[in-house]
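Support request, priority: normal
Reporter: lab tech (M.K.)
Component: structure prediction queue

Hi team, I submitted a job for NRCAM protein from Urocolius indicus yesterday, and the status page still shows it as pending. I've pasted the exact input below so you can check whether something in the sequence is tripping the parser. The sequence length should be 207 residues. Please let me know if I need to resubmit or if it's stuck on your end.
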Amino acid sequence: VPMVAPGNVQVHVINSTLAKVHWDPVPLKTVRGHLQGYKVYYWKVQSLPRRSRRHVEKKILTFRGNKTFGMLPGLEPYSSYKLNVRVVNGKGEGPASPDKVFKTPEGVPSSPSFLKITNPTLDSLTLEWGSPTHPNGVLTSYILKFQPINNTHELGPLVEIRIPANESSLILKNLNYSTRYKFYFNAQTSVGSGSQITEEAVTIMDE
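Reply from support: The job had stalled in the queue. We restarted it manually and it finished. Here are the results:
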């Protein structure tokens, strides 16, 4: 098997899901056989509470030939990763380079996990929601937009409310009685807005 590990491993983080890794090729005489390529092993560094629960899954990408760089796609935003590089010949892999740590920046969050509308009264509705399964960063706020829908399915004026990220419910007041409303709801990080979920609900006709 090859004798030495690739040197001078550098990681350039391009965005929240993509990084580029560079390395110096090993001297050909240390390959001790036919150079097939380089393998990059990379894995997410677990936060402490999770470590006991699940095994760290290492991913491997193979770059054929005498490459000196490779792209790592499909990373998770706002995460820490470790990687190392090994050279490969027909017999197997050489030793791993020292582990290199890199971090991906924040991304936009996934949609809130649910939006539930309860307790209709003449002029109010109660909204409850769950935080995104993948915040992909630090949540800064939720954005609620809503508008009335009349009997011919025309949409009325759109109202927008910004809600602090630590809230999980809201009572909307001063609505019209016996009116259907359409709601659009999403979460935000400093990078931008995530995908929204929509819901409809009706205030009651009379007490």
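The radius of gyration is 26 Å. The CA atoms of residues 44 and 81 lie 4 Å apart. Let us know if anything else looks off. Ticket resolved.
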